Q: What sequence folds into this?
């Protein structure tokens, strides 16, 4: 009956379900539990508390069959209402084994959340490394972030430029800490972190608990470990996830074999499991290192699975296993699937970077490969072969990059083979290598004259890519050259530039003219005295400019696209690599209210409670912030007025959460009902940091807004000046958090109009905030009536280390 | 919902459907639309799996047979959902039909093993492991309690169990203790790793040059498992760049299928000679030689022996009125057995 989605009969159904929940028959109770989510879907607010109560009753049940369904209901109705779990935690753990498999999956997730919310993370687990690295690395981390942003624009992924491109050889602890942090953060918080280098939620040691001393953790681990033997791969993965997060490091071995065993099921689940193993293996390679054989590729695997296995293999390779792995790789290179062969070559490069000892072997192999491949690419010109060749040279280049002086011979060999390699991209890359390391060692500079004249000779027949690269490399060589070589280089370059200026392709022509202008002083064949006249500054400039241009050239398509974000193991988001709708990260550690927890935790607790209250808000809201388009149309049936007050409540709560030591904000908490006042208060508070013209405008704008309160209809006419400015600029740190409250489309159910808020990160650099982030917020009133009490509010960091300024202008149409 | 849960559920649906309908393809589903609908209705509710145990489903929804078809045509009542509420949902063993009755009690235990092996270009065995299942077919009355023990559990690398298996006895002394569902089910699957040898060898040899490629494949017995190895087939994908292939063998038949797969069915290996296949592939014009070589997939079957060496020690039954008949069988077949060339 609950399947009839009619609002009218909902109260009747609710009553029936309530009765059935106390029925004597297990089957009836189970069906009652199943009916609850359907009832809840009707979104009749007044019933929510009753529904939650029934969930509580059902969770108290003794039959495992009922508990499975009740867990499912709990997860979809009130996933944050941990008090319901708290009463039955121990019993739920004990009965977990007998619950049917589908219920087990859900129940494991709930119990995990509960334990984390109650006790925090476990000190012995891999997640704890977060805490250790946190303090020591925070400085270092900030700097690496900067660097990576600068040198690697390829990694920016939708603006989330957190420096996650940790070198593969690198700091696994750091990666693990990233992983754990990502598990806990909401997607919007993640967004916020990318905007400034300061870390998001500070997790202090108090939020960790010892797995050995804590009973709850111990029980959970104990009860989930037999589930690793389950026949259902989803159960295995869920149990594995619990162990991954909670278990002490030395016990993690336990999850390895079951996970690998699950690989023997259908190919779809194989892919899912491999995706998860990949994350595990990256964070803790030692775990899977002895089992490298399981990731050997089978010809019946699909390409995606092969690629994943390769990636895992290259991340778990150790000095002892590398020889076996290379043997396998040699076979893979001859695989009929050339795309896969190219990937293998890339993987060899990665292995060599991770294990510098093997670099020489790798290079020899790769060089042999290039020689082999161009034999075939000469005549065959098969698509895939070119890919393999390019990838091989790319790998060689990345290996050389690590330690150029020791690989001088390789460079020479590559340059020698230039004549026989025909693939333009590969040629371009070799030329790049020649240009980049032109001053390395003794032999290379001597070769260069010949090489350059050879290149000049062939210039007209080259492909576009190669032509551009020749130009660049020549300039590079020129800039490094000294003595008599300089003259010959200049002649060659002049010749090439002239050729290029008459080229058919406008890119080449442009490049040639540009280089000529920059290097006009250097190029002048007249003589040295003139060159001396050129101010060193200018020379420096040209140098810098040139270097800059070359830095960005032929960036390799990252062979291993680094996922910038990790999600909970087993979740859908982990597979698709973005937060899927409905994705819920782990709750904040220790967010359950306890008397003995310090102030900041308490504040977090209130936050959590707040969020529990407004959970429907977050539900609908999450979609928006995930997909990045924030002008979503929420389908909730709240009246506009209602939701506005609600949002102000939650924002007030947030304010206290972050600025917990400020009297102002405490005031705020108290004065929640008085929206206008609170808002102004907050405003004044946030603006106190800086005195600025813009700020003045904003204040004026805001105040006129606020004073306007019920004068509604006149609002649009009375503020033409505001309309003319029409952009709101907010520099803020914690964008994500604010986005939550700002992004509402508050629908008036009667006519489908509402308040629409849009925001964009503008490319301008803000002059006010030293975080230099500029956000434009557009507020639009779609309804026929004017709205009041709209305010934007900034989340001050507790230290007040930066000032946030707002200029609020809204258009009211 | 975790994606694996969805995948796992779909697999379960497929299993149940093919169990009910004796196969799974478009036509079968069209013909038995009502049954499929009823099954799905029972199995999933509001996006959450409801009843997936085949035993209980069978109790609720009768399996299609001629009698019910005739009945439905005559009476016009097309539903075959039973009126009674399934009893087992209330019992403590939710996977078992409440109280089945059999005239003669039987239980069969099968060890079905699949051998995965990879042999690389140099003929070295890179990986060899066995994935095995213990399949039980039980027709026992009442609520029997079974205990199954193995002679050598130490070789098992990893195991997975049917939900009916109790974990504690396994943890303490590696004994499987369970109340079986009715009918055929997979009690346990296991894995044995790092085996040293394969029962047969396959030696491919490819030489390429001058626009053609010469293929020679030799097959023979390496370690005699004691039983005959039969239904041996060797299969490989011909490269894309060949124009024609001409393959002959001295034993068995060679077929080139439509999707450029060459299938050589050998059957049993004769005593007096080693089967071999040879032939030439003509490459596309302009291609001097072949530089990627195919991988050979080998299939075989050995009846009556479990190659992993796992042995069932004994099977005890309790709670049974009369002595049941117990049967054991073993079977090994090739899983992903490939030979690279």
A:
């Amino acid at each position: 009956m609950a399947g009839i989605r009619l609002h009218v009969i909902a109260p009747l159904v609710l009553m029936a379900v309530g009765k059935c929940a106390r029925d004597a028959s297990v089957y009836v109770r189970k069906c009652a539990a199943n009916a609850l989510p359907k009832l809840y879907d009707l979104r009749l607010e007044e019933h929510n508390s009753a529904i939650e109560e029934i969930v509580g009753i059902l969770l108290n049940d003794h039959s495992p069959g009922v508990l499975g369904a009740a867990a499912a209901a709990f997860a979809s109705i009130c996933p944050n209402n941990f008090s319901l779990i708290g009463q039955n935690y121990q019993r739920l753990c004990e009965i977990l084994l007998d619950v049917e498999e589908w219920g087990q999956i859900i129940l494991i997730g709930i119990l995990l959340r509960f334990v984390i919310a109650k006790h925090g993370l476990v000190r012995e687990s891999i997640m704890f490394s977060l805490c250790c690295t946190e303090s020591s690395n925070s400085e270092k981390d900030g700097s690496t972030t900067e660097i990576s942003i600068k040198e690697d624009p390829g990694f920016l992924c939708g603006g989330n430029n957190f420096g996650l491109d940790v070198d593969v050889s690198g700091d696994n602890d750091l990666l693990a800490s990233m992983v754990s942090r990502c598990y806990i953060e909401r997607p919007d918080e993640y967004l916020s972190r990318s905007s400034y280098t300061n870390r998001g939620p500070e997790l202090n040691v108090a939020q960790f608990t010892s797995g050995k001393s804590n009973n709850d953790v111990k029980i959970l681990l104990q009860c989930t470990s037999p589930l690793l033997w389950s026949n259902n791969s989803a159960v295995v993965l869920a149990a594995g996830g619990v162990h991954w997060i909670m278990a002490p490091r030395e016990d993690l071995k336990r999850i390895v074999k079951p996970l690998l065993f699950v690989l023997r099921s259908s190919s779809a689940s194989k892919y899912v499991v491999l995706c998860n193993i990949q994350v595990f293996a990256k964070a803790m390679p030692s775990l899977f290192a002895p089992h490298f054989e399981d990731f050997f590729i089978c010809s019946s695997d699909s390409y995606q699975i092969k690629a994943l296995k390769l990636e895992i293999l290259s991340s778990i390779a150790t000095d002892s296993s590398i020889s076996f792995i290379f043997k396998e790789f040699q076979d893979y290179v001859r695989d009929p699937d050339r795309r896969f062969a190219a990937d293998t070559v890339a993987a060899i490069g990665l292995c060599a970077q991770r294990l510098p000892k093997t670099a020489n072997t790798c290079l020899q192999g790769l060089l042999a490969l290039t020689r082999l491949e161009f034999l075939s690419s000469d005549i065959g010109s098969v698509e895939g072969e070119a890919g393999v060749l390019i990838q091989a040279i790319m790998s060689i280049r990345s290996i050389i990059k690590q330690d150029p002086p020791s690989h001088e011979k390789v460079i020479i060999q590559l340059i020698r083979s230039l004549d026989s390699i025909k693939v333009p991209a590969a040629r371009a890359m070799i030329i790049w290598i020649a240009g980049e390391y032109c001053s390395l060692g003794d032999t290379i500079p001597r070769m260069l004259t010949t090489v350059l004249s050879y290149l000049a000779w062939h210039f007209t027949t080259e492909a576009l890519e190669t032509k551009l690269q020749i130009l660049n490399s020549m300039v590079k060589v020129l800039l490094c050259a000294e003595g008599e070589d300089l003259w010959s280089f200049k002649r060659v370059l002049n010749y090439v530039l002239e050729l290029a200026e008459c080229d058919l392709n406008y890119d080449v022509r442009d490049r040639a003219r540009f280089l000529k202008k920059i290097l006009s002083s250097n190029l002048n064949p007249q003589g040295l005295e003139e060159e001396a006249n050129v101010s060193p500054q200018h020379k420096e400039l040209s140098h810098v400019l040139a270097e800059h241009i070359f830095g960005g050239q032929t960036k390799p398509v990252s062979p291993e696209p680094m996922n910038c974000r990790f999600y909970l193991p087993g979740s859908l988001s982990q597979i698709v690599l973005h937060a899927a709708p409905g994705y819920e990260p782990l709750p904040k550690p220790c967010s359950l209210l306890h008397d003995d927890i310090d102030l900041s935790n308490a504040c977090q607790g209130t936050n959590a409670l707040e969020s529990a209250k407004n959970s429907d808000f977050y539900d609908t809201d999450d979609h928006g912030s995930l997909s990045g388009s924030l002008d979503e149309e929420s389908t909730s049936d709240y009246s506009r007025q209602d939701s506005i007050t609600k949002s102000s409540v939650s924002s007030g709560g947030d304010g206290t959460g972050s600025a917990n030591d400020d009297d102002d904000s405490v005031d705020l908490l108290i004065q929640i009902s008085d929206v206008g006042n609170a808002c102004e208060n907050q405003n004044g508070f946030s603006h106190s940091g800086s005195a600025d013209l813009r700020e003045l405008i904003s204040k004026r704008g805001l105040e006129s807004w606020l004073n306007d309160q019920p004068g509604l209809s006149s609002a649009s006419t009375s503020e033409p000046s505001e309309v003319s400015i029409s952009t709101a600029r907010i520099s803020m740190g914690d964008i994500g958090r604010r986005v939550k409250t700002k992004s509402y489309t508050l629908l008036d159910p009667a006519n489908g109009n509402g308040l629409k808020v849009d925001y964009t990160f503008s490319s301008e650099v803000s002059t006010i905030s030293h975080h230099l982030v500029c956000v434009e917020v557009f507020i639009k009133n779609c309804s026929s009536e004017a709205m009041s009490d709209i305010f934007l509010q900034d989340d001050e960091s507790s230290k007040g280390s930066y000032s946030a300024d707002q200029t609020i202008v809204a258009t009211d149409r | 919902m975790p994606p694996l849960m969805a995948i796992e559920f779909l697999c379960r649906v497929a299993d149940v459907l093919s169990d009910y309908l004796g196969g799974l393809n478009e036509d079968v589903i069209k013909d038995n639309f009502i049954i499929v609908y009823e099954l799905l209705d029972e199995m999933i509710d509001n996006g959450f799996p409801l009843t997936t145990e085949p035993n209980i489903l069978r109790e609720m929804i009768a399996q299609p047979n001629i009698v019910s078809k005739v009945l439905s045509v005559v009476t016009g009542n097309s539903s075959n959902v039973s009126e009674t509420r399934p009893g087992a949902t209330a019992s403590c063993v939710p996977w078992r039909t409440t109280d089945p009755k059999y005239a003669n009690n039987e239980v069969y235990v099968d060890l079905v093993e699949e051998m995965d092996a990879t042999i690389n270009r140099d003929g070295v065995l890179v990986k060899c492991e066995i994935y095995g299942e213990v399949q039980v077919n039980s027709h026992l009355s009442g609520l029997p309690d079974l205990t199954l023990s193995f002679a050598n559990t130490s070789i098992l690398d990893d195991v997975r169990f049917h939900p009916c298996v109790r974990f504690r006895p396994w943890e303490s002394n590696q004994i499987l203790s369970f109340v079986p569902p009715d009918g055929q089910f997979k009690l346990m699957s296991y894995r044995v790793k790092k085996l040293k040898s394969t029962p047969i060898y396959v030696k491919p040899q490819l030489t390429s040059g001058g626009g053609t490629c010469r293929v020679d494949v030799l097959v023979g017995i390496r370690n005699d498992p004691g039983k005959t190895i039969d239904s041996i087939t060797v299969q490989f994908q011909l490269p894309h760049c060949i124009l024609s292939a001409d393959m002959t063998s001295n034993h068995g038949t060679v077929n080139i299928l439509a999707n450029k797969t060459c299938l050589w069915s050998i059957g049993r290996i004769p005593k007096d000679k080693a089967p071999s296949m040879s032939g030439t592939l003509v490459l596309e014009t302009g291609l001097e030689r072949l530089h990627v070589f195919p991988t050979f997939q080998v299939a075989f079957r050995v009846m009556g022996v479990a190659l992993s060496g796992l042995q069932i020690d004994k099977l005890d039954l309790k709670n049974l009125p009369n002595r049941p008949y117990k049967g054991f069988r073993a079977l090994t077949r090739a899983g992903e057995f490939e030979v690279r060339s």
Q: What stands out?
A: Chain A touches chain B through 59 residues (CB under 8 Å).
